[in-house]
Specification:
alpha+beta; 7-stranded mixed beta sheet; globular
């Protein structure tokens, strides 16, 4: 996987390496996500987390979350391939589809690359669902 190493679950250190400085509210949400559902981190061979992701089980869907850090650019093809394989482990049919919330154009590109399609908008945020 071009010098990348998968580990799980995602740790607080992984989150801090990928997200950098963030507000206390965002940090609380991130820590909650790794506490309530399966998560993973992808590290460079130097040990730095470059991508994190996971799933939050909700009553009507699995909410997928993921974030590529600032050093992920050179690894994006491998990261997308790996994330697609990870997503395939979560059932995306029946009563609990896999959805994600997109906040930026870069997030939309990544969601599309991971096999999501835009389904609508809620509170100014785009909701995407796995095909």
């Amino acid at each position: 996987m071009s010098g990348l190493v998968l580990s799980g679950p995602c740790t607080r250190m992984d989150l801090s390496e990928v997200y950098g400085t963030c507000s206390p509210l965002v940090w609380t949400c991130l820590v909650h996500q790794i506490a309530v559902g399966p998560s993973f981190a992808v590290r460079s061979t130097e040990g730095e987390a470059v991508f994190v992701g996971g799933f939050v089980p909700l009553p009507d869907c699995w909410e997928a979350w993921f974030h590529a850090g600032p050093t992920a650019g050179p690894h994006m093809l491998a990261l997308v391939r790996h994330a697609r394989l990870t997503l395939s482990l979560i059932p995306d049919h029946g009563p609990r589809p896999v959805e994600t919330v997109v906040r930026s154009r870069a997030g939309a590109r990544l969601a599309r690359a991971l096999g999501f399609v835009r389904r609508g908008e809620v509170d100014g945020l785009e909701v995407w669902r796995r095909k």
